[in-house]
Amino acid sequence: MLSFGDVAVVVSDAKKAAAWWREKIGFEVRDDDGHWVTVAAKGSDTLIHLCESKPLEKGNTGIGFLAKDVLKAAKELEAKGVKFTKPAEKAPWGAFAMFADPDGNEFWINEA
Question: Are strands 3-11 and 47-52 parallel, antiparallel or unpaired?
Answer without folding.
Answer: parallel
